[in-house]
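Narrative summary of target 7.
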Amino acid sequence: MTFGILLFPGVEELDFVGPWEMAAMWSAYADGPKELITVAQTKGTLRCAKGLGVIADYDFEDCPQLDYLLVPGGFSVFDELGNEPLIKFVQRAAESAKHVLSVCSGAFILHKAGVLDGKNATTHWKAHEQFSALPNVNLVSERWVRDGNTWTSAGVSAGIDMTLAFIAEIAGEDAASIVQMNSEYYPDAKIYGKAHKDLLHVDYIKKLDGEM
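Modeled conformation, tokenized:
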């Protein structure tokens, strides 16, 4: 099994590093994917949204067939929507992948590639209005959403939750438990301060706030 993560300039770091960590723990401790790789339009170093430099293992031409594809997000996604080679790569990879996942605004790339046609999906709360205006996709205001073999998550840290749920579905609760234990990922759902009060239109935030 090969788990591939798409990279592009300006990608949001935690969008892919969080899922990478979960997938790597799965591989190391619970018989997960044999290969965990990164792919970008060109191999070599690229700069992420917050300045982190990362190196892509493969380019679009030499990338092996992927069993799982994860597409992260970031503000630069909206530039990449006009990148025809990137969209075509996602289309090709999604056709043969068993499951396709996105984090944050990565859902816009999946939509552009036709992966979300007729499906439920989510994205970062900042992009809800823009995503709702897209044709042939239904926004669900949750932390992560599964529709068939397509998984989408809300912003940034939500990709960790989605990937752990994905592991539980694909490999079973025991595998997910091992990953959760080794990553010590036990969120306490504590909300600090009152900034979240501006987000009570987001269903999962409303639940955490006790308004649902």
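The radius of gyration is 16 Å.
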